[in-house]
């Protein structure tokens, strides 16, 4: 869902003066370069990896998706600033999604760089390893879709799966689990790792108050909202966690946003306020749907809402986006239940919600 500002597909980043996804190693501050790496999907063109120069070598914030074109471009971009894979000392990975984690762990294994990841991502990695050993018969996301009342979408997701299993090399366990908030010393820099669950349970942002920047991962994005509820194993109240984590970021100094997707943006305060307001509006819209329709599943409510910055009807979305929308709507309804504004009944065909 896009909220406010210019569309991601047309956004120019101030560090490059070009489209934010354009190839290069763009200096965002002294000793910090933003390197967009391509993604094999239509919705998001790239993921920003940040190379931070320190006395002991490079620290990379995120690693990108482990595909040949991304690896080649990362190598080329690092060489353009006089570095290479052998100079990488550590990866600080914001969260476990493959466009952030998999190239980091592959390069970490090959070159001996330390890979750090949030402790709360451990269950997801363990689940992926079980899938790689063929111990899981179907995608665990299908059960999440079913609880949202989206059995037909779950069947389409299952039919579209090519049967390939996760590659354990891409999903190796990290060298360091980040547990709680802590500080990383990177030469003259100190990066504050702040636990920000919501998008995923173990998501972290990394703040450099002295430089005035926030490596925000997928937690604070300048032109879009991160997906909520699209995580396995499922967690209780992902939207509540996300909004509480936004409030935590709001307690930090107002920092320049260095996001995983989209252009560099000037104010974490401004964007956090926009994101919180957006979700309050979606909560109101979801409650209005419940009041109009009576006891219904998340899928029914999702069909009442507009999607993307163009407020597209649910039926206009592709089947993958429909599934994401159903799961995110369920996260909003679960928060309404937690706030005492709705009730939930767990039935065989999904969770059914009613307004209070």
Automatic annotation (TrEMBL):
Residues 46-261 form the Metallo-beta-lactamase domain. Keywords: Hydrolase. GO terms for molecular function: hydrolase activity. The keyword Hydrolase applies. PANTHER family: ENDORIBONUCLEASE LACTB2, METALLO-BETA-LACTAMASE SUPERFAMILY POTEIN. This is MBL fold metallo-hydrolase. It comes from Nocardioides albidus.
């Amino acid at each position: 869902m896009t909220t406010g500002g210019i569309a991601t597909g047309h956004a120019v980043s101030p560090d490059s003066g070009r489209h934010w996804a354009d190839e290069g190693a763009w200096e965002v501050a002294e000793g910090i370069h933003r390197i967009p790496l391509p993604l094999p999907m239509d919705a998001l063109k790239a993921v920003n990896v940040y190379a931070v120069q320190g006395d002991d070598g490079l620290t990379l914030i995120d690693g990108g998706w482990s595909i040949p074109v991304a690896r080649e471009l990362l190598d080329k971009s690092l060489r353009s600033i006089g570095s290479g894979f052998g100079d990488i000392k550590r990866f600080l990975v914001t969260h476990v999604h493959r466009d952030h984690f998999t190239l980091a762990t592959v390069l970490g294994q090959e070159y001996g760089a330390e890979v750090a990841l949030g402790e709360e991502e451990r269950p997801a990695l363990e689940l992926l390893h079980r899938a790689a050993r063929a111990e899981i018969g179907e995608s665990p996301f299908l059960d999440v879709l079913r609880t949202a009342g989206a059995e037909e979408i779950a069947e389409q997701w299952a039919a579209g799966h090519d049967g390939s299993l996760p590659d354990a090399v891409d999903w190796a366990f990290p060298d360091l689990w980040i547990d709680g908030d802590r500080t990383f010393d990177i030469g003259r820099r100190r990066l504050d790792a702040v636990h920000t669950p919501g998008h995923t349970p173990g998501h972290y942002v990394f703040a450099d108050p002295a430089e005035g920047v926030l490596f925000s991962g997928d937690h604070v994005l300048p032109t879009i909202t991160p997906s909520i509820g699209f995580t396995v194993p499922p967690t209780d109240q992902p939207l509540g966690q996300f909004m509480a984590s936004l409030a935590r970021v709001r307690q930090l100094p107002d920092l320049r946003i260095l996001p995983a997707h989209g252009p560099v943006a000037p104010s974490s305060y401004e964007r956090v306020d926009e994101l919180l307001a957006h979700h309050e509006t979606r909560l109101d819209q979801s409650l209005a749907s419940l009041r109009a329709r009576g006891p219904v599943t998340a899928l029914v409510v999702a069909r009442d809402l507009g999607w993307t910055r163009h407020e597209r009807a649910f039926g206009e979305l592709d089947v993958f986006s429909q599934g994401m929308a159903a799961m995110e709507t369920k996260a909003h309804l679960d928060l309404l239940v937690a706030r005492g504004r709705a009730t939930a009944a767990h039935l065989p065909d999904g969770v059914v919600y009613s307004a209070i």
